[in-house]
Structures are given as C-alpha cells and as structure tokens.
Amino acid sequence: MKGDQSVGKIRVVLRDTLNELGMTQKELAQRTQIRESTISLLTRDAGSSVNKEILARVMDALEIDDIRKIIKYEPDEK
C-alpha cells in the first residue's frame, strides 16, 4: 500500500446490535464470560484491534452468524 492512499475504517457496531436485542453489556459479559470492561471497549469501538476469539464468543452468545451485525466496513470517501 502506498503512503498516499487513504483507507476505509472498520467499526465495531456491537452497541447497535445489543440495543436491537434489548441486551445489556453486563448480560453479554455474563453470557460470554468476557470481562465487562472488554465488552465496554467493544461497544464503544475503542482500541485498534479485536481478538477473533472474543468476536466468536460474542457471536455465539448473541446467536448470530453474520459478522456484519457487529463489525462494519466504511470505505474512505474520496
């Protein structure tokens, strides 16, 4: 990739999915056995990386099979 190319963004949209399901972050943490602080980071789309195992545990707990329910790609607007 060249230095002058801009790239899109990958966003975690877990908060939206939790709202749609009427589930709290605390409930998700309990179902997944993931620390509440980690769930909070995900729902705030904070941090620069996401652990694949955590994503899988979240998807299992929410009974979803489409990663677009929790991750969204936004292309760069040129």
Describe the 3D structure.
This is DNA-binding Xre family transcriptional regulator. It comes from Desmospora activa DSM 45169. Pfam families: HTH_26. The chain has 78 residues and is mainly alpha-helical. The chain has a single domain (9-74), classed as 434 Repressor (Amino-terminal Domain), CATH 1.10.260.40. It is 45% helix and 10% strand. The radius of gyration is 14 Å and the shape is elongated. The two termini are 16 Å apart. The model has no long low-confidence stretch (mean pLDDT 92).
The shape, in one word, is elongated
CATH architecture: Orthogonal Bundle
Number of strands: 2
Structural classification: mainly alpha
Approximately what portion of the residues adopt beta-strand conformation?
5-15%
Order of helices and strands: EHHHHE
Question: Helical amount among residues, as a percent range?
Answer: 40-55%
What is the level 1 CATH name?
A: Mainly Alpha
- Record the strand order, biggest sheet: 1-2
What value does the average pLDDT take? 92
Number of domains: 1
| Alpha-carbon distance between the two ends | 16 Å
Radius of gyration: 14 Å
Low-confidence stretches: none
Contiguous helical run count: 4
**Fourth-tier CATH superfamily name:** lambda repressor-like DNA-binding domains
Largest sheet: 2 strands, antiparallel
